[in-house]
Amino acid sequence: MGFLDALFGRSKPVKPDLDQLFGVPSAALTLRAAKGFAPTGLGSVCFAAVEGAAFTEVQQQVRALLDADTGRGGVPVEASRDAYGYSWLLARHTPDELPDLVNDLHAVNSELEANGFGPQLLCSLVGFRDAEGRSLALVYLYKRGTFYPVCKVAGQEKRNNPLEIEVSNLLRDDLRIEPDLSRWFPVWGAPGIED
After folding, report:
1. 16-182 maps to which CATH number?
2. What are 54-108's pLDDT values in tens digits?
3. Given strand 77-81, what is the order of strands in its sheet?
4. Whole-structure pTM value
């Protein structure tokens, strides 16, 4: 950081660190032990809407990459758009395959980044649910290199803020938690967060 940046209070943006995603399995153990939240097997990657043949080609590359890695039939990644115009790629695994899901999310982010879509990457999330049926997502902010929890109230566009704060404090040793609460976006309608 230069002298003028320090003088005017500007800071350099945090460089994305996709390897932070590999902390999610450890955080999942903490979540299960302390709060009873277990992985759902769902995870997704969000990026700003992209039109045209270039994105279609990258989407096909991502699907081919994950098909090759998983050895499964079918389409492991589902593409969709939310009501706000953001594009999502949803990966599905069984709940006990969390490390594989995290690897898939890392691969999707890396492939999009390698093909020039890094500036459009917004976030990735991994879904959890507890015995009471409450849903939780750990959201990774690509441009910040940090995580935050989203705990939705079932059937409503409402969040359980006390539980989010509790979970964030619980996971501080496992994940880099986003300190700016104004960046804890609700991600309504995101694939991977079950109602």
Report:
1. 3.30.70
2. 777 777 777 777 666 555 554 467 888 888 888 888 998 999 999 999 999 998 8
3. 77-81, 87-92, 38-47, 121-129, 135-141, 146-152
4. 0.85
